[in-house]
Amino acid sequence: MTAVDLGLPRVPSTRGSFSAPGRPDDPALIDTFGRVATDLRVSLTDKCNLRCTYCMPAEGLPWLPSEQVLTDEELLRLLRIAVERLGITDIRLTGGEPLLRPGLEGLVAEIAALRPRPRLSMTTNGIGLAKRAAALASAGLDRINVSLDTVDRETFRRLTRRDRLSHVLAGLAAARDAGLAPVKVNAVLLRGTNDQEAVPLLRYCLDHGYHLRFIEQMPLDAQHGWNRADMITAEEILGLLRAEFDLTPSPARRGGAPAERWLVDGGPAEVGVIASVTRPFCAACERTRLTADGAIRSCLFSNDETDLRALVRAGARDEEVADAWRATMWGKLAGHEINEAGFAQPIRPMSAIGG
């Protein structure tokens, strides 16, 4: 499969070329709105073994050429800079599908060995997790999120274009047994496709001790076919759940967490709703993102990137790389602007950005 030039912006790799006018002399990843990024989302690969209808076409996408993907050595260097120089305390491994990254357990062990040790989690579709959950936990993975939009086999097959539900459910159980707690489930509801699954999903998660999070569908599909009218809103999700459950706001402090949490039937069990579109939480955002090919993004919906891979391969010093990262985050916008006139969907789809 041939690569496609997505027209992604790349910054010059000349040493000392990064500046952020007005930025105070602060080593952290601060921005002009007073936010501090301490949570790093790291895409390990853009490849995926599912073809979810709201993410990519049935034939898949042109994957990044291997020479463009960060090597283990390059990736670990950037993560060390993030932890030691930039104040990153949480690292989440994503994709694509991170389980497709060769040598994943070794990478996890190396990341867990960084000091100060970051909290380390992973978001996965769960396929193949059953055989690897224990090894990942032993390597240092702290917890896991599994994407699962239905517990009905036929609906799963239609949504993902793969008959793999049993593998995902086995992966969830293995993660729980390996102590990767709390095991969280991420679900997206699509109108007319799986919107009837809200209650069964929550019942399944309650029965098995998983923490369910519903996520509003976002304009991040490769086909650019997102339609606001097709999106199941947070209010609709809560309405579907309230038909069977009593929901009350959780007293737990939300902080920078994306999910609004609700006690189910008085608790202690909870369900979360991530209303990225209708109830944006940008003002409390603590995230920065690193793509599989070494680009830093200040926001999931950004159309600008900073190419750290080019800096690393040109021989830049650690502090020069850190300064480029700081300058990128200093320019972060106030919000994602999905609800503003003129919003432009990112060129890269979610599978290439990292969740």
Topology, pairings included?
Blueprint: E1 29-30, E2 36-37, E3 39-43, H1 72-85, E4 90-94, H2 104-112, E5 119-124, H3 133-139, E6 143-147, H4 153-160, H5 165-177, E7 183-187, H6 198-208, E8 211-215, H7 234-242, E9 247-249, E10 260-264, E11 270-274, E12 287-290, E13 295-297, E14 306-307, H8 308-313, H9 318-330, H10 350-353
Parallel strand pairs: 3-4, 3-12, 4-5, 5-6, 6-7, 7-8, 8-11
Antiparallel strand pairs: 1-2, 9-10, 10-11, 12-13, 13-14
Helix pairs in contact: 1-9, 2-3
Structural summary, described in words:
The structure is a single chain. The chain is α/β, with parallel strands linked by helices and 355 residues long. The chain has a single domain, classed as Aldolase class I (TIM Barrel, Alpha-Beta Barrel). The chain is 26% helix and 16% strand. The chain has 10 helices and 14 strands. The strands form 2 sheets. A 12-stranded mixed β-sheet has the order 9-10-11-8-7-6-5-4-3-12-13-14. A two-stranded antiparallel ribbon has the order 1-2. Strand 4, helix 2 and strand 5 form a beta-alpha-beta unit. Helix 1 packs across helix 9. The longest helix is centred in the first third of the chain and has 14 residues. The radius of gyration is 20 Å and the shape is globular. It starts with 28 loop residues before the first strand and ends with a helix. The N terminus is likely disordered.
**Overall pLDDT level:** 89
Which structural class is indicated by helix and strand composition?
A: alpha/beta
Which descriptor suits the 3D outline?
globular
Work out the radius of gyration. 20 Å
Q: Largest beta sheet, briefly?
A: 12 strands, mixed
Any guess at the CATH architecture?
A: Alpha-Beta Barrel
CATH class: Alpha Beta
Question: What letter string, H or E per element, gives the SSE order?
Answer: EEEHEHEHEHHEHEHEEEEEEHHH
Which fold does the CATH topology refer to?
Answer: TIM Barrel
Uncertain runs: 1-17
Count of helical stretches: 10
